Amino acid sequence: VDAKKKIHTALSVVRECLSFMQQSGNLNATDSRYIVLIKYLLYYLLGEYPLQIIPTVSDDVCVITKRGKAARIKEVQALLDAGNGSEDSRHEVQTLLEILKSDSTNDLCIAVCGSIVAYQKDLSGNKISEYDGIVCFPNRRENQVVFVESKNTKQSAGAKSCLKKKLKNTPVPYNPQEIQGIGNDCYLRVTI
């Protein structure tokens, strides 16, 4: 089975699980089961490398799942308002928040507000890549995933080249011309 089919199947599984979870009732936006779901999708999306999601601005929250633009913005802003994390980590989540603010659709969103680290398959512990944030809109027909690259520096060219380098190791189909800059940061919307 080729990588594209695996990614598409993983997204379908995530959609079904989210639907079932939402039907079951009271869910917290930071329910730990959302971490399992997004890791499942990211495993295939990032090339079947072992991965880890590391909280950066909270000791216990790294994934927020919420329906509606205002609701998800409020949840991510609350993470920043707590005042935790390093200056760089806070800048990464602030960049993710700006991307969420610019999105006008009121649908379900899974926002990974932490570092996503992919490791070598040989389990040596060597990092292949580290992503500053990823947003997933599982119910959309296109642009379901947004990769975020944030640079807390005055040099603007670094973020785009850094994101291109990271995506080189993945089966993600993308056009480098579609990487959008926001200040010194950038993001890429990808259709699965």
Can you describe this structure?
With 192 residues, the chain is α+β, with helices and mostly antiparallel strands. Helix content is 39%, strand content 23%. The protein is built from five helices and nine strands. The chain has helices at residues 3-23, 32-45, 69-81, 87-102, 158-167, and strands at residues 51-55, 63-67, 108-112, 114-119, 127-131, 133-136, 145-149, 180-182, 185-190. The strands form two sheets. It has a six-stranded antiparallel beta sheet with strand order 2-3-6-7-9-8, with helices on both faces. Strands 1-4-5 form a three-stranded antiparallel beta sheet. Helix 1 (3-23) runs antiparallel to helix 2 and helix 3 packs antiparallel against helix 4 (87-102). The protein is globular and about 45 Å long.
Walk me through the topology.
Elements: H1 3-23, H2 32-45, E1 51-55, E2 63-67, H3 69-81, H4 87-102, E3 108-112, E4 114-119, E5 127-131, E6 133-136, E7 145-149, H5 158-167, E8 180-182, E9 185-190
Helix pairs in contact: 1-2, 3-4
Give me some keywords for this one.
single chain; 192 residues; alpha+beta; globular
